[in-house]
Design a protein that fits this description.
Length: 122
């Protein structure tokens, strides 16, 4: 492990690398595109993009909110899909009965981080 860390220090760009920095390379998809690709544009009676994303967030919470990048990205897409903070928090809280409090708490922390960061940027 120490050898790998020493090797990574020899690459100057790696010192500044952060997972959140890498995550910033992936843009948030515009709402219209989400509706076309994931919503009910093709399947009129199907779920809209916001509902699908809320289900995705619930599933990621069920997994213990382990994939932080996917979790934060889903929250960002939900904001773009015009989900309210309450709807996002409720989707996570609903999973507390099934995933347990540690997973729900972690999901809330990740969502709060994205929601508060987004409000600071505006």
């Amino acid at each position: 492990m120490a050898q790998a860390q020493d090797m990574m220090k020899s690459f100057p760009a790696m010192e500044a690398f952060t997972p959140k920095g890498f995550e910033a390379l992936w843009p948030t998809m515009p709402k219209d595109m989400m509706e076309t690709m994931f919503g009910n544009a093709v399947n009129e009676d199907g779920l809209d993009a916001k509902t699908r994303l809320l289900l995705t967030l619930a599933g990621l919470t069920m997994q213990g909110a382990q994939n932080e990048v996917a979790f934060r990205q889903t929250v960002r897409h939900l904001i773009e899909a015009e989900a309210t903070d309450q709807q996002i928090y409720e989707a996570i809280t609903q999973m507390s009965l099934f995933a347990g409090l540690p997973a729900t708490t972690r999901g809330m922390e990740l969502a709060r981080d994205v929601l508060e960061t987004g409000k600071d940027a505006t």
